[in-house]
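<given_protein>
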Amino acid sequence: MWLAFAFSSALFAGLTSILSKCGIKKTDSNVATAFRTIVVLVFSWLMVFIVGSQSTIVTVDGKAWVFLILSGLATGASWLCYFKALQLGNVNKVVPVDKSSTILTIVLAFIFLNESITILKGFAVFMIGLGTYLMIQKKEVASNEETKDKKWLLYAVMSAVFASLTAILGKIGISGVESNLGTAIRTIVVLVMAWVIVFATGKHHEVVKIPKNELGYICLSGLATGASWLCYYKALKDGLASVVVSIDKLSILVTVLFSYIVFRERLLKKAAIGLCLIAIGTLLMIVS
């Protein structure tokens, strides 16, 4: 059953990237992140009350609180970096770098969660890494665009690192905690962190200036994110972290499809080969 939740998480995560890109054309990425977290928070707590797990909050022990909070902080950092990268770069390049967090997650799961690394899993990691490399190869660009490319790449790499930490910390923190409640608790941490960044950078005045059409996309991306999170942490609680994260990264297929439909972003032949390698590597992870 946790496999179904993992695949659902991937679908909603793919939609999140596209909706978010539509919502940050004129809106500052940090402001958009903070606003959409409000939507995620409302959605996640609504799910808590629907399943009736709010009363179990008193049973959450100190260790779970610490790791859920740390997971929330890592998520907030990953989001801020990810959406800044999306604002600066091409969706088809940003997403593969972010999804490469699978590799680091597998290593961390081996170290901290005692999840095995088989020969097949190692080969899958190699395929995912090679595919990511092919997808982010740049075309010849002007020097000013080259600088811009370096900026999105830095933010995308940081997003991947924090996403890996999110998975490991979340896996530890959500053990013994109802998954919807765990998601809702950590969303509070993300919300606080996102708005602290907005006020620290003096961008809070821009909240009232968000274009209505972009506000709609930001809200929809928040709903997609909330749905993705609920599925993701349900799968993470019941399944292997390395496999759940790998399946979740299949959202790249959804993202690439919709980026072509919405933004007309075409894949180069090399990038298309890279996408196939990532997909094959991910499927091998599931089999392993």
About this structure: The radius of gyration is 18 Å. The chain has one domain: 2-287. The CA atoms of residues 94 and 156 lie 6 Å apart. Residues 139-147 have pLDDT under 50 and may be disordered.
